[in-house]
Specification:
single chain; alpha/beta; Rossmann fold; Helicase, Ruva Protein, domain 3; Zinc Finger, Delta Prime, domain 3; 3 domains; six-stranded parallel beta sheet; two-stranded parallel sheet; 8 strands; 59% helix; globular
């Protein structure tokens, strides 16, 4: 059974505890907090003996896990078992062993098991071993908090320590500022929230107090940059490019992300002008997820000549990041990338910005 991460605490408090919990996802803070909460609840319920099995490499001895499970089912000791699979790929033997483990643990209320995994794709989530884990207990996704949900997440974390921002538009601006500073770095975001709890008493925090205390710890990646550009968010786009440059990201990788979107838009528009329906066009261009919704918004207003100019700009910037100069473009690769990103963001923003 699936459970949202924000529902886990209520489930653990209400009880009874499930015999198996599976945490999967690539957000380290949420995985850490979820694991800590499950361990604490198990200890409080008397599951004090603990075993940890870490599956590292392709030659893990699954028989040791199954042997321990068999012994516990015989003697009935109250134990807490952790199975950590950092790769998310148990392999053929591991798949069989995990299914067998679930069979051995079924009906055994003397053991609580916690399985931790990284982010899983659809194929992994549909596998026999994951289906067995999910069917035996609860699975909790630990995905990153998206930028549009980050202000509310921050407000909830502040409220948990008795603090809040000012009401109305001022408070919304404060939360937006906070989110800009910590985007893509949830662990550091929680550290900044905790710091505010140490610096100031419970109550309302002013924007000046937050601006003074919160350090800029945002981290970005080229895939999030793509979402920002295609959303027409000019300020956020420039801030993300500055962050990627400061983090030492390769300019050629940033160009690749921008060029991929430009070429996909150009090809999609050409196919639409040729009479193909939009759903078919998006499938052909392998556009799905958040990008699919953005393409659906952009393409009706984007015209082929406009996109052709973007393709030409992307080709020019490709040369610049590889050391070739152009008389009408900045010599610095990152300045050229900023200009290209702004051109795409203006097209993505619609006729008013294009």
């Amino acid at each position: 059974m699936q459970l949202r991460h924000d529902q886990l605490a209520a489930h653990l408090q209400k009880g009874p505890l499930k015999s198996l919990y599976t945490l999967h996802g690539d957000e380290a803070l949420l995985a850490q907090e979820g694991g800590d909460a499950i361990r604490a609840a198990a200890r409080a319920a008397g599951y004090t003996e603990r075993q940890v099995h870490t599956v590292s490499g392709a030659y893990f001895d699954w028989s040791s896990l199954l042997g321990a499970a068999s012994e516990m089912s015989l003697f009935g000791d109250r134990q807490f078992i952790e199975i950590r699979i950092p790769s998310g790929k148990p392999g053929k033997d591991g798949s069989t062993a995990l299914q067998r483990y679930c069979e051995l643990m079924a009906g055994n209320d003397g053991v609580i098991t916690l399985v931790t995994l990284p982010r899983l794709d659809k194929t992994q989530q549909g596998s026999a071993w994951f289906t067995a884990l999910d069917g035996m207990g609860l699975s909790v996704r630990c995905d990153p908090v998206e930028r549009n949900a980050l202000p509310l997440w921050i407000a909830q974390r502040l409220a948990a320590q008795g603090q809040q921002v000012e009401p109305g538009e001022v408070g919304q601006r404060t939360l937006a500022f906070f989110a800009d500073r910590v985007e893509g770095n949830l662990l550091a975001a929680q550290q900044e929230i905790t710091k505010l709890g140490l610096l100031h008493p419970p109550g309302t925090l002013s924007i000046e107090q937050i601006e003074e205390a919160v350090v800029d710890v945002a981290r970005f990646n080229v895939f999030k940059l793509s979402e920002a550009v295609l959303s027409g968010q000019v300020h956020r786009t420039l801030r993300m490019i500055d962050g990627l440059q400061a983090e030492g990201e390769a300019a050629v990788l940033v160009h690749w992300a921008l060029a991929e979107d430009i070429l996909a838009l150009y090809r999609a528009r050409g196919a639409l002008d040729g009479g193909k329906p939009l759903p078919m066009v998006l499938r052909e261009q392998r556009v799905w997820g958040p990008r699919e919704r953005l393409f659906e918004r952009i393409l009706p207003n984007a015209r082929l000549p406009m996109l052709a100019r973007l393709v030409a700009s992307a080709s020019t910037v490709d040369g610049i990041v590889k050391g070739l100069r152009h008389p009408q473009w900045p010599e610095d690769p990152w300045e050229a990338l900023r200009r290209l990103a702004l051109q795409l963001a203006r097209v993505a923003g619609g006729p008013a910005l294009a």
